[in-house]
Specification:
The chain is of the alpha+beta class and 173 residues long. The model has no long low-confidence stretch (mean pLDDT 90). It has a domain of 111 residues: SGNH hydrolase (Rossmann fold). The protein is globular and about 50 Å long. The two termini are 26 Å apart. Helix 3 packs across helix 5. The longest helix has 19 residues. The strands form 2 sheets. The chain has a two-stranded parallel ribbon. The chain has a two-stranded antiparallel sheet with strand order 3-4. It contains 5 helices and 4 strands, in the order βααβαββαα. A hairpin with a 5-residue loop joins strand 3 and strand 4. GO terms for molecular function: hydrolase activity, acting on ester bonds.
């Protein structure tokens, strides 16, 4: 049975993550630091990277997919129900816990973010084009699915591997 060896790049927290402010870095700086660290690991062990973090950042950089903090939602004294608007977020974000308290998860992917990471893994590991895959996940609109697939495909195809290319797609074949 073949053994798989690869490094999976991680993603930066969402722009409203309190740790970014505490660490005095931007989301872009966090992404660069993570990419540098994962690239060093990939080089050291001569393994390819699955560019999950790069795909998340590429999605976030699109003009039509920018996440903006909801300025109309007063977080210092939030209402007893509801959450801030979170359009274009790929992470879980704001939610109400079992006690109905407002909490922020700026790290873990929501369904769209998880699909994007899965799509990157699919292309990186198989060399198949995710845009040709017929699987349609529930609760992701068709127009958004198309964007997620395009971002995944473009990221895998253009990602500069720090070590050996993962697939024929990354090898330029």
């Amino acid at each position: 049975m073949p053994r798989w060896h690869f490094s999976t790049g991680s993603w930066a927290y969402r722009i409203d993550a309190p740790l970014l402010e505490r660490w005095k870095i931007s989301q872009e700086e966090m992404y660069q630091k993570l990419t540098d660290a994962y690239s060093r690991v990939a080089k050291k062990f001569d393994v390819p990277m699955i560019p999950a973090g790069a795909a998340i950042q590429n999605y976030r950089r699109r003009d039509d997919r920018q996440y903006h903090v909801d300025a109309d939602f007063y977080l210092q004294s939030p209402p007893e129900t509801g959450t801030p608007k979170q359009h274009n977020s790929l992470v879980a974000g704001w939610y109400r816990n079992k006690e109905k308290k407002l909490q922020l998860d700026p790290k873990h992917m929501n369904k769209r973010g998880a699909y994007l990471i899965g799509a990157v893994g699919y292309e990186a590991l198989t060399g198949n084009d995710i845009r040709q895959n017929s699987f349609v996940p529930p609760r992701i609109p068709a127009d958004e699915l198309k964007v997620l697939q395009e971002v995944a495909h473009e990221t895998v195809a253009s990602f500069q591997q720090p070590a050996a290319p993962q697939t024929k797609l990354q090898n330029g074949r």
